[in-house]
Amino acid sequence: MKKIALLGSTGSIGTQTLDIVRHHPERFTITALTAGSNTELVVAQAKEFKPSIVSMATKDLADRVSPHLPAGTRVVYGDEGLIEAASETDADTVVTAIMGSRGLPATLAAIEEGKAIGLANKETLVTAGHIVMARAQEKNVPIIPIDSEHSAIYQCLNGEPMRGVRGITLTASGGSFRDRTRGELEGVTVAEALSHPNWSMGAKITIDSATMVNKGLEVIEAHWLFDLAYDQINVLIHPESIIHSYVEFVDHSIVAQLGMPDMRVPIQYALTYPERHTTPTERLDLAAIGKLHFREMDFERYPCLRMAFDCGRLGRSAPAVYNAANEIAVDRFLRGEIAFLDIERVLETVLERHEVSEVNDLESIAEADNWARRLAASV
Ligand code: NAD
Ligand code: MG
């Protein structure tokens, strides 16, 4: 029986993780659930899965859910609550399905306790990849990717020595505006940006897919997860999202991972690795799909991806600043405060004004993160 603490249980990855748990009641149990504000859903989840801890974003929300929780479920809240949920139950695996760099301290706390990480929260590795990966290695804790591209690479690499790897290619669907020119991006609405052609995901990552920031975060995530140089990481537009990513070896052999776009496959793989079990998902029928398409990435069309490569290569505080500025810019766009193309303008301005510095601990990362948030909020 695998015991799972699930950070971000009411979101897109969170609810799909619970789907997998539901599908294999003999294999998985839930020890902790955490949620932002969806009290109704988290109460229903707690009744169904009977965790020992539920953590809510604020005390007010915690007070609201508390009377409805099953006996034996304790409620906590805030950033401390999140850390408690991640590290203080008898979970052996923590699934990080929370959005944004807020997930970082809880992920590190789980690693300290020797818990395996099922990593969806890519912002964690973007802001502090050097710290998280080093600590995981020291504690001998596996970090298994849930992001579909990284799960694909993980599956392709299974058992391969890294010296045989020439490079990897992350595929990108192109997001909601992939068939528009830059000129046609002026004045697009929040609703248009939120309708992704292939995947149903949380709001923030859907906007990140349209700006290609998501792929930028994934490039940095891949750099840390697989210890690859940025020159070894490529991005290719693949509108169908059937090939989830691939590895090219030095002998020019390519190994790719394919499947229907359904996050429950990589979520379950992270939970059962190295084993495989049935999933409640659709099988891929290549004959029915007929054709797959590929387009070279256009860095002029998607400047946010170029900025991500630049920040990745600069390293130190640059990726944390890129991520934090983006979190604020996306939030402002979703609230109707700035236009879609302003997201990249905010990023550009914040990065231009940033003086890259060493960030060797959580405090200095938080400092860079806060600096970027403040500036991004006022640009
Ligand atoms: P989402 O917005 O749907 O869900 C976020 C979850 O975090 C929700 O349960 C929310 O209640 C919870 N949360 C927010 N603030 C919280 C707080 N203060 N305390 C506790 N919980 C809090 O997001 P998502 O799309 O599921 O994405 C989650 C993460 O997974 C992101 O890092 C994203 O980049 C990554 N990811 C998502 C997908 C996808 O298909 N959705 C794919 C790959 C990677
Ligand atoms: Mg992805």
Which features characterize this protein?
single chain, 379 residues, alpha/beta, Rna Polymerase Sigma Factor, Chain: A, seven-stranded parallel beta sheet, five-stranded mixed beta sheet, 16 helices, 12 strands, binds nicotinamide-adenine-dinucleotide, oxidoreductase, EC 1.1.1.267
Layout of secondary structure:
Blueprint: E1 2-7, H1 12-23, E2 28-35, H2 39-49, E3 53-56, H3 59-65, E4 74-77, H4 78-87, E5 93-96, H5 104-112, E6 116-119, H6 122-138, E7 143-145, H7 148-157, E8 165-172, H8 190-193, H9 203-211, H10 213-226, E9 233-237, E10 243-249, E11 254-258, H11 264-272, H12 286-289, E12 295-296, H13 303-314, H14 318-334, H15 340-353, H16 362-378
Parallel strand pairs: 1-2, 1-5, 2-3, 3-4, 5-6, 6-7, 8-9
Antiparallel strand pairs: 8-10, 9-12, 10-11
Notes on the structure:
This protein is an alpha/beta fold and 379 residues long. The protein has 3 domains: 2-145, NAD(P)-binding Rossmann-like Domain (Rossmann fold); 160-261 and 283-300, no CATH class; 315-379, Rna Polymerase Sigma Factor, Chain: A. The protein is 46% helix and 16% strand. Strands 4-3-2-1-5-6-7 form a 7-stranded parallel sheet, with helices on both faces. Helix 6 links the parallel strand 6 (116-119) and strand 7 (143-145). It starts with a strand and ends with a helix. The mean pLDDT is 97. The structure holds nicotinamide-adenine-dinucleotide and magnesium ion (MG). Magnesium ion (MG) binds at residues 147-149, 218. The site of magnesium ion has 4 residues, from helix 7.
